[in-house]
Amino acid sequence: MSEVLTPDICVVGGGSGGLVVAAGAAQLGLQVVLLERDRMGGDCLNFGCVPSKALIAAAKAAQAQRDGAAFGIAPVEPKVDFARVMDHVTQVIAAIEPNDSVERFEGLGVRVLKEEARFVSPDELQAGPHRIRPRRVVLATGSRPTAPPIPGLAEAKYLTNETVFANRTLPAHLVIIGGGPIGLEMAQAHRRLGARVTVLEAAKMLSKDDPELVAIVLRRLEGEGVALRQGVKIARVEGATAILEGGERIEGSHLLVAAGRAPNIEDLALDKAGVAFTKRGITVDASLRTSNRRVWAIGDCNGLYAFTHMAGQQASLFIRQLFWLPAKLDHDAVPWATFTDPELAQVGLSEAAARERHGDAVKLLRWKLHDNDRAQAERATEGMVKAVVGPRGRILGAAIVGPHAGDLIQPWCLAIAKRLKISTMASHVPPYPTLGEASKRAASSYFTETLFSPRVRWLVRLLSRF
Ligand SMILES: Cc1cc2nc3c(=O)[nH]c(=O)nc-3n(C[C@H](O)[C@H](O)[C@H](O)COP(=O)(O)OP(=O)(O)OC[C@H]3O[C@@H](n4cnc5c(N)ncnc54)[C@H](O)[C@@H]3O)c2cc1C
User: Fold this and answer.
1) For residue 454, is pLDDT > 90?
2) CB of 32 within 8 A of CB of 135?
3) Least CB-packed of 84, 112, 275, 398 within 10 Å?
4) Strand pairing partners for 281?
5) 339-357 pLDDT per residue, tens
6) Predicted pLDDT at 188
7) How far is the CA of 392 from the centre of ligand 1 (A)?
8) Whose CA is nearest to atom 51 of ligand 1?
9) Ligand 1 atom at minimum distance from 43 CA
């Protein structure tokens, strides 16, 4: 029977963004209806961040068995039970699931409906038998994998992030189309677990990251036996085999497509609500409001970023607006990480973007992990910290490649978000011996030339007489 609901807020999509809005708003005492058509937790929990990081962790354990020689431990080829590895992935999802469950959200006072939502007018939605007339709507419908228009691909039985974590057979040869973060994380993980892996990329691998640091990641992957092919054109696909222009056949046992994402917007009937969109996503202003004043769009569905932390950040920006506080997305302090080994992390402006804005006023600071004692102790010296500094010592960006780069980037995230100067980063005291010292050393190098200049040396000699 049709029921009319009139909540303060209707959230469409129970993933990374939608759940933060629903929990925040309900805890503020507002009436919230949350609509989720599939699995609570969205992509991140079920088909994205969580399973991929769990698979990567298993692959790291396998690789550690191969990498013992430098420590005096005889290397062995690990015996991998791929089906049990996938059980581990499922268990990790199950361990986190309660945080995102219907029960938890109902406990917070959210009315959760397992239904697909679509607009029927600018201020009404239909979700199964329910008609919803909310004061505000937050769209958080996420994105899905897309496939490039390669002849034969549509007919091929290929894997995507939505199916690869359900695969329980180790691929003999995994061919991956797409050399972005997802493609390369999956490539290294499968290689370490014993598969032969080839990655085919039409342009450049990890093209959104700093090429100087990307080169270090790619070198490691190739060193571990991942075949990386950049700038290749696939003429057609037959089963799991890619046939390149020129005729070369890359015979695969499994094919994984990780070559782009599309926003989940088609089923929302946005035109009925007067919500503007392009094929990249729902159009929003700086406060994430759409062309319909009652409707906001956050997370992957607005096409701005495709990261869980940005979906969460955008959810917080919406919550701020409930207090009538100013809320504007800061595009200059966006971090991201690729969880290959070594990890690759970036925040703020890249070297190229900084040079475009500030020209020659940009100064680059680098510190290699080779010169870090902890990295030496752990035999993990491949990597570096690179900071981009602008006029008057303002930190504009930083990138790190190395173990735990996704964690090591965090002080730089804070520095950039709070518009700190490089002198602050240079003067903090990290514990010894830690990889984090590399960030301080990179920052301190900003002052090396000035500090040890002939003029300063003369001054110090003079002062020492008194
Ligand atoms: C393999 C992979 C690895 C990733 N790794 C990382 C990582 O390490 N770090 C990181 O930050 N990001 C990572 N991401 C990206 C991250 O998963 C997404 O950015 C994040 O999940 C986006 O959150 P969201 O709330 O926008 O969408 P989602 O979390 O996907 O949630 C959207 C929800 O909306 C539901 N929905 C859609 N339409 C409707 C409708 N009409 N009615 C009702 N419900 C609807 C969907 O079923 C879904 O549950 C990864 C992605 C992939 C694919």
Assistant:
1) no
2) no
3) 84
4) 278
5) 999 999 999 999 999 999 9
6) 99
7) 39
8) 48
9) 30
* Predicted local confidence at residue 455, as pLDDT: 87
**299 HSE (CA, 13 A, CB side):** 29
How remote is the CA of residue 313 from the centroid of ligand 1, in Å? 14
Predicted confidence at residue 457, as pLDDT, reads 86
Return the C-alpha torsion angle 67, 68, 69, 75, nearest 10: -80
Pocket test for ligand 1, best of 43, 53, 139, 413 (most atoms within 8 A of CB): 43
Q: Which atom of ligand 1 is nearest to the CA of 118?
A: 41
pLDDT by residue (tens digit) across 170-214?
999 999 999 999 999 999 999 999 999 999 999 999 999 999 999
Residue 120, amino acid: V
How many CB atoms are closer than 10 A to CB 166?
Answer: 12
Give 278 Cα–ligand 1 centroid separation in angstroms: 19
Q: How long, in residues, is the chain?
A: 466
pLDDT digits (tens, 9 = 90+) for 1-47: 578 999 999 999 999 999 999 999 999 999 999 999 999 999 999 99
3-class DSSP string for the chain: CCEEECCCEEEECCCHHHHHHHHHHHHCCCCEEEECCCCCCHHHHHCCHHHHHHHHHHHHHHHHHHCCHHHCCCCCCCCCCHHHHHHHHHHHHHHHHHHHCHHHHHHCCCEEECCCEEEEECCEEEECCEEECCCEEEECCCEEECCCCCCCCCCCCCECCCCHHHCCCCCCEEEEECCCHHHHHHHHHHHHCCCEEEEEECCCCCCCCCHHHHHHHHHHHHHCCCEEEECCCEEEEECCEEEECCCCEECCCEEEECCCEEECCHHHCHHHHCCCEECCEECCCCCCECCCCCEEECHHHHCCCCCHHHHHHHHHHHHHHHCCCCCCCCHHHCEEEECCCCEEEEEECCHHHHHHHHHHHCEEEEEEHHHCHHHHHCCCCCCEEEEEECHHHEEEEEEEEECCHHHHCHHHHHHHHCCCEHHHHHHCCCCCCCCCHHHHHHHHHHHHHHHCCHHHHHHHHHHCCC
